[in-house]
């Protein structure tokens, strides 16, 4: 690790230089949009105007590997594009060793080769990422796989490339939970981050809503009416089964785990009015955080776990408020608009996204965590609601009615590169899962995720 | 015992009437402790009552038909409008006459806004209707509430007509 840090540092610097160049040119050639002001940050946030050129070589084959190279490459290509970090172009594979090309400083080249493994259905993928300007190899890694695990292998490779080049892994290995409606029934579903492999999680034939991921990635908390009352259940993805967590009279809604996983913030109305509570994950203790006669709901922890952002209508309409995790120091955050809801804190802690209603339309806003600089990142495309950050903070998933029925979409955190993930039945309430903690966990999740039946 | 409850019904009903007749009085206020709350946003541009016609309960006929009625609400609001109070008073009468009937008050919302906020809003609407019936004299033990938020709409349209019908406390006998 330490030996590669100088290499990574240089690449980071290159990346920063290209993004600065791109930013400057966009500022010169376009009449500098006001949002650019908040984006002069040389980090690796996804953006439509600051992308690293990536030359993706045709993957080579060694032995009887059939169409695996082209299949794998298609998956990797989509991953690189969805990362929001790269502009992907297609090239032929390198002949011989990479050579420095200073005319292409800041460009990345990715090579791949699929080889036959020791027996029939076992293969190896060798992937390389090359800094074209210096000719240095930033990543060179071999991944054993079977034809059943090609997709997840490619996702892992792309996240490895992103980590090697930017210091921050991508989210190609993550999942998104959401709600799908069929007739009067609403069930929890999940899919890969790119919309592939949609599968039903709950089979309660009831109303199941507001899924949210445990930080360890194998549990989803959600509200279900299956016993008549809006109760909070936990779904264990490793076992494919759910069990009740909070079944107090009235609302048990809007769950959010603390970053350490020890608490679940949620809305209870057992006092006759919706209030934000913390209930310990072992269900042994409950703390009431809000205390008034109005609506308080939709809590979301800061990544440090020290603060909670939430929705309250104590000023007469829903607005985004913040408080300490003990419930103290409650204060209004949103400075614009008459209707702001569904706040979610970014994984780096610097931003908060929420949905605002303006002129009868809902749109996604991103603001600084102190409430300053609210920027509307969706527009003129139906209602856009329920924004939720990806684990790397580069992307936001949300629901939109831009094509009629509500569907799940993703975009870069500045609103660029909108991609639809779901189709068919009405889908909403997306929640982006954490990165997998270990390979073992991933396997457990994959087998449990298929659910019963 | 029975006599005193009757009397308290009468007093409360009288009080409700007085409140109703006093224009712009406490009846239009939100249930918030803060006094200077802006008026609730209504989707129609009409600034003043009477409320939208779609939301009006049917006009009472001479042969006073007693059946359970729903209370309707303005957008993002859970204060009881005059028509909602009239509907609930009819429910109160019905429950007085049918003293063994227990009811569920379901809070419902229109499709706009988040799942979570609307579940809380529906809860507020159901509770507001329940509180009104309790103050009318119906024992709490006969009244339960549940919120469906925006998840069980009565009308599936996407216009003010449908929305007005979906913003309600739906009163059903158990």
TrEMBL record, chain A:
Q: Where is this region: Disordered?
A: 424-453
Matches recorded under InterPro entries: 6-blade_b-propeller_TolB-like (IPR011042), WD40 (IPR011659)
**Which family is it part of?**
Belongs to the TolB family.
> What is the protein named?
Tol-Pal system beta propeller repeat protein TolB
Signal peptide per UniProt: 1-36
The opening ranks of the lineage are:
Bacteria, Candidatus Eiseniibacteriota
Regions that span the bilayer: none
Q: Please name the Gene3D superfamilies in this protein's record.
A: TolB, C-terminal domain, TolB, N-terminal domain
The protein's UniProt keywords, in alphabetical order, are: Signal
Domain of life per record: Bacteria
């Amino acid at each position: 690790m330490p030996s590669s840090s100088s290499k990574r540092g240089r690449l980071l610097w290159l990346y920063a230089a290209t993004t600065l160049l791109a930013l400057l040119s966009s500022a010169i050639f376009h009449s500098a949009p006001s949002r650019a002001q908040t984006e002069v940050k040389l980090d690796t946030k996804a953006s439509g105007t600051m992308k690293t050129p990536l030359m993706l070589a045709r993957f080579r084959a060694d032995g009887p590997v059939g169409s695996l190279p082209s299949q794998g490459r298609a998956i990797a290509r989509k991953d690189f594009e969805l990362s929001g970090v790269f502009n992907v172009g297609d090239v032929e594979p390198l002949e011989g060793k990479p050579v420095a090309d200073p005319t292409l400083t800041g460009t990345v080249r990715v090579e791949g080769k699929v080889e036959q493994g020791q027996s029939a259905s076992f293969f190896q993928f060798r992937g390389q990422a090359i800094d074209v300007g210096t000719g240095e190899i930033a990543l060179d890694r071999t991944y054993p796989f079977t034809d059943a695990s090609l997709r997840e292998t490619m996702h892992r490779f792309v996240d490895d490339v992103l980590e090697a080049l930017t210091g921050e892994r991508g989210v190609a290995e993550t999942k998104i939970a959401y709600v799908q409606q069929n007739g009067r029934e609403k069930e929890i579903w999940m899919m890969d981050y790119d919309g592939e492999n949609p599968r039903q999680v709950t089979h309660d034939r009831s109303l199941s809503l507001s899924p949210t991921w445990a930080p360890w990635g194998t549990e989803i908390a959600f509200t279900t009416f299956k016993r008549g009352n809006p109760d909070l259940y936990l779904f264990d993805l490793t076992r494919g089964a759910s069990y009740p967590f909070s079944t107090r009279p009235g609302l048990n809604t809007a769950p959010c785990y603390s970053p350490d996983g020890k608490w679940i913030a949620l809305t209870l109305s057992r006092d006759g009015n919706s209030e934000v509570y913390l209930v310990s994950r072992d269900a042994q203790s409950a703390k009431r955080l809000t205390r008034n006669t109005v609506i308080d709901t939709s809590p979301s922890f800061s990544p440090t776990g020290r603060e909670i952002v939430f929705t309250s209508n104590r000023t007469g309409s829903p607005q985004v408020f913040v408080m300490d995790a003990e419930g103290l120091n409650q204060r209004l955050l949103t400075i614009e608009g008459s209707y702001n809801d569904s706040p979610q804190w970014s994984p780096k802690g610097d931003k908060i996204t929420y949905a605002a209603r303006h002129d009868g339309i809902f749109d996604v806003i991103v603001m600084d965590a102190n409430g300053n600089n609210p920027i509307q990142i969706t527009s003129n495309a139906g209602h856009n609601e329920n924004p939720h950050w990806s684990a790397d903070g580069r992307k936001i998933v949300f629901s939109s009615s831009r094509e009629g029925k509500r569907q799940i979409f993703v975009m870069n955190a500045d609103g660029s590169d909108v991609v639809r993930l779901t189709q068919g039945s009405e889908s909403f309430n997306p929640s982006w899962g954490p990165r997998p903690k270990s390979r073992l966990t991933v396997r457990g999740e994959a087998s449990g995720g298929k659910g019963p039946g | 015992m029975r006599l005193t409850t009757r009397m308290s019904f009468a007093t409360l009903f009288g009080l409700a009437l007085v409140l109703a007749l006093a224009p712009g009085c406490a009846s239009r206020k939100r249930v918030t402790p803060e006094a200077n709350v802006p008026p609730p946003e209504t989707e129609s541009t009409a600034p003043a009552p009477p409320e939208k016609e779609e939301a009006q309960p049917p006009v009472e006929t001479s042969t006073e038909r007693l059946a359970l009625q729903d209370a309707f609400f303005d957008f993002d609001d859970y204060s009881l409008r005059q028509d909602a109070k009239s509907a609930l008073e009819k429910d109160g009468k019905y429950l007085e006459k049918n003293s063994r009937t227990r009811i569920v008050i379901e809070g419902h919302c229109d499709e706009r806004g988040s799942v979570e906020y609307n579940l809380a809003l529906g809860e507020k609407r159901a509770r507001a209707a329940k509180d009104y019936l309790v103050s009318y004299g119906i024992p709490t033990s006969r009244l339960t509430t549940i919120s469906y938020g925006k998840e069980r709409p009565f009308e599936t349209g996407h216009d003010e007509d449908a929305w007005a019908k979906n913003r309600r406390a739906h009163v059903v006998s158990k």
